[in-house]
Amino acid sequence: MPLAALLIQRLALSVLLMLAVSVVIFLGIEALPGDFAQTYLGQSATPQAVANIRQELGLDQPAVTRYFGWLGGVVQGDFGNSWASGSSVSRQIGLRLGNTLFLAFWAALVSVPLAISLGMLAVHYRGRWPDRLINVVSLGAISLPEFFVGYILILFVAVQGNWVTFPSTVYDGMSFGQRLEAIVLPCATLVLVVLAHMMRMTRAAILNVMSSPYVETAELKGLDTLRIIARHAAPNAVAPIITVVALNLAYLVVGVVVVEVVFVYPGMGQYMVDAVTVRDLPVVQACGLIFAAVYILLNMSADILAILANPRLRHPR
Amino acid sequence: MDSYLKYLGREAAFGRISRREFFGRAAVVGLTLPVATKLLTSSVLAAPQTGGHLKCGLEGGASTDVLDPAKCTSQVCFVTGRNWGDTLIESHPSSGEPVPSLAESWDASPDAKVWTFKIRKGVQFHNGKELTVDDVVATLKRHSDEASQSGALGVMKSVGEVKADGGNLVISLPEGNADLPLLLSDYHLVIQPGGGMDDPNAAIGTGPYKVASFEPGVRITFEKQANDWRSDRGYVDSIELVVINDATARTAALSSGQVHFVNRVDPKTVDLLKRAPHVTIENTPARGHYVFIMHCDKEPFASNDLRMALKYAMDRETMVEKILRGFGTVGNDFPINETYALFPEGLEQRSYDPDKAAFHFKKSGHDGAVLLRTSEVAFPGAVDAAVLYQESARKAGINIEIKREPGDGYWSNVWNAQPFCTSYWGGRATQDQMYSTAYHSKADWNDTKFFRPDFDKLLLEARAELDQAKRSEMYREMALMVRDEGGLILPMFNDFINAVTNKVEGYVHDIGNDMSNGYVATRVWLTA
User: Fold this and answer.
1) Residue A260 to chain B, least CA–CA distance (Å)
2) In which band, very low, low, confident or very high, does the pLDDT at B40 lie, cut at 50, 70 and 90?
3) Do A43 and B415 touch (CB under 8 A)?
4) Contacts of B411 in chain A (CB under 8 A)
5) What fold does the segment set B289-494 form as a domain?
6) Which end of chain B is more exposed for a tag (fewer CB within 10 A), N or C?
């Protein structure tokens, strides 16, 4: 079956890609000025203390040895321990990844249906004021940097209105409801940031199909426009929409460092930035790999969904 | 009006304004004498209230933080350690003198080489075990060991033998040190059961709070320890430290009342924060300083004339005004200010003098630009400070060329490596510690490459001198050496700027360190 073969081929390729990513991250960290021992100790580094840490962590070994040592652990499912805190990377990442996915999930749940329905609405009213309003507002939101959107929301909703919990820190022992309340602001910011991209793509893709003869036929049959858009035009425009949705979902997981910092949300991004600052290689590698995996998986599922949605793609000529 | 009066009352209570001034200002706003008196006594005598949940939003925490006090480097770890543990000695908030904590009293031999500390009886650790002198000995030994990677290793290196003698701790030093008690107040030296040898991260101590949950870089919570051995601390029932590294988020959390206390208020926005009706800024004069450092052993800075020229080219008042927004004091090119015991009074303040700068510059024979390296990580506003300095030096005919270095790796590649750069120093507990850390010829962090055998000799003599008058004279001489011959340009000492909401009472200004010397959560109480 060609689909299964394609899937296997893609999976094998992504393993290679992840290996390449890990090499690039490793080289990147090597190229940064100062190693873990120096940066961790910062201004208080003495030659003796630096030498102690290097010896303890095996940083005095050649880079190739260290890389394969790390790789050997990962192949057996062991991400090792953080150099800085000594705690298990897998356990920490478990917590942080859970938080990140929680936020991404709710942001996606709001933004994807909202973007697609707004896109359809814009098509329906194309050229008239609702179309223009949707365009202007969503373009406005995407043009502002996300930290700015975040600060504006904090100022009006948290500081002056005092309507929601801020900072958005989530922690063990919080109830589900409390967690939801805590992420209202970061979630709203993310929705505003990713909305325009998906909405515009939906609008463009559907408009493209709207000029085809079969849509004209549907119109002549006397179907109402919304029904034509939803039942006849949208399924044929789904491939580009799926691609852009997948890209934005990936962004919601891997690109939200700034939002995490602004709203004090303990996700993967902050964890990785903390680790990069002190060159905590095991943590950086693990985060990098997970981010890469999320990206690759989402892209792959976008491709597969597009093939499923469009039977023509199943039979390459 | 209410908040103004409350502010006045508090200022009077902490002795920042006199009683007379308080009544004067109260009269100006139309208060009768009896009412003003009542207000003053209520401020002064306001009895601490117990109970409540204190929330602090703190900068300086990362997912790399640990509970082991030896490895404590961040601000959050600092406060955390103060909450759950005690040191042998504390420093007095306003005088900086050593005061008893787990050590009840102490004695020194006349040469300051052998010290005996009486360890307090009847103190319990959180696990119910009684504190003994063996725990103290084990703790100090752990921090003396290289393998512990303790931040107090520098302090403990000077300590010779540590042993128990009955209920007492006896420390014998290879060389006399009159400041030993203060050195033991170092925040890393938290006394742990068995010295924390088996589990340094257990966070079991004798402090007023127990760690209830610990998520590094996110949030740490504490519960009151029921039978705390001290009654003058630990007023709130529970504490929550939330890590908020973003300055804007921290400010927003305070102004929306979601946290009671924040640290590291940005001087640039402090005026805006002040406008919030329920927020009080608590700034404390401090020992930390921002510096421009020259290597005395490298060209062109080997010439003392060039160094003098660069010192005179610094406009200190402008630095305090523009970089610190007034939250600081001018420096005088030696690393000590009034907050230290035995501060040398009456030294002439060096000020901006383009003529003298030009004179010395010409005399040095140096020709061309002077290269200054800087980075935002050197201190907040370091790049701006460098540009301001460039301007004031230009008026003296000195051309400063600024090279902006990446923040990453600044401390390993630029500081202590390049001949002229910007940097900062936190304060130390004593003058001796400050000079030993950064001005002794053999110090690892001698970042001005100040190699002066006569200075080293004086430093050692002053360290063992128990006669305060003689010691004071030695410190004056040392200050003059650094000020007039060293490689240090010290334009400003920066205040610690913290802020609290009006629900918080009893904030103690402590010159020892930031955030009321880390004791903020154990010292304040909440009003209803």
Assistant:
1) 10
2) low
3) yes
4) 34, 38-39, 42-43, 45
5) Dipeptide-binding Protein; domain 3 (3.10.105)
6) C
Instruction: Please name the residues between 267 and 306 in chain A that touch chain B, using a CB distance below 8 Å.
Output: 270-271, 274-275, 277-278, 280, 283
Find chain B residues with C-beta within 8 A of A32's C-beta: 408-409
Q: What is the pLDDT of residue A38?
A: 76
Among all chains, which residue has been given the structure tokens 């504190």? B131
The SS3 of residue B176 is coil
The CA distance from B407 to B377, in Å, is 5
Find out whether the peptide bond into A213 is cis, omega within 30 degrees of 0: no
Smallest Cβ distance to A33: which of B246, B413, B423? B413
What is the CATH T-level fold of the domain B86-196, as seen in this structure? Dipeptide-binding Protein; domain 1 (3.90.76)
Instruction: Name the band, by pLDDT with cuts 50, 70 and 90, for residue A314.
Output: low
The mean-pLDDT minimum among A192-206, B14-28, B502-516 falls in B14-28
Query: Considering only alpha carbons, which residue of chain B is nearest residue A42?
Result: B411
pLDDT surpasses 90 at B53: yes
A/B interface, count of CB pairs below 8 Å: 125
CA dihedral of B138, B139, B140, B141, whole degrees rounded to 10: 50
The β-bridge partners of B282 are: B498
Architecture of the A95-274 domain: Orthogonal Bundle (1.10)
Q: Closest partner residue to B246 among A46, A159, A264, by Cβ?
A: A264
- State residue B1's pLDDT score: 41
Q: Would you call B409 and A173 a contact, using CB atoms and an 8 Å cutoff? A: no
Cα–Cα dist A296/A241, whole Å: 18
For residues B361 and B357, give the distance between their C-alpha atoms in angstroms, rounded to a whole number.
Answer: 6
Dihedral of CA A139/A252/A287/A173: which sign? positive
Task: Point out which residues pair with B425 in neighbouring strands.
Answer: B289
Q: How far is B300 from chain A (nearest CA, A)?
A: 25
Cβ atoms within 10 Å of B362's Cβ, excluding its own: 12
Contact across the interface for B146 and A275, Cβ inside 8 Å: no
DSSP state of B120: P
Residue of higher predicted confidence among B124 and A52: B124
> Which residue matches tokens 């929680």?
A102
Q: Shortest Cα distance from B152 to chain A (angstroms)?
A: 11
The residue ranges of every structural domain in chain B are 2-45, 86-196, 207-285+496-526, 289-494
Nearest CA in chain A to B150: A49
Paired tokens of B130: 């009684």
Place of tokens 């460039």: B390
pLDDT tens figures, A213-260: 998 899 899 888 888 888 888 888 888 889 899 999 999 998 888 899
* Length of chain A, in residues: 317
Partnered with residue B423 across adjacent β-strands are B291
- Chain B residues with beta carbon closer than 8 angstroms to that of A277: 62
Residues of B in contact with A261 (CB under 8 A): 245-246, 249
Residues in chain B: 528
pLDDT band of residue A151 (cuts 50, 70, 90) is: very high
Sheet holding B261-262, edge to edge: B209-215, B219-224, B238-243, B53-58, B261-262, B496-501, B279-284
Which of the following CATH numbers is that of domain B207-285+496-526: 3.40.190.10, 3.40.50.720, 2.60.40.10, 3.30.590.10?
3.40.190.10
Q: If you average pLDDT over every residue of chain B, what do you get?
A: 89
Domain locations in chain A? 95-274
Closest CA to A263 of A191, A189, A186, A194: A186
pLDDT band of residue B25 (cuts 50, 70, 90) is low
Report the complex ipTM: 0.80
Q: How far apart are CA A276 and CA A272, in angstroms?
A: 6
CB contact under 8 A, B444 and A85: no
Contact residues on chain B for A47, CB-CB shorter than 8 A: 444
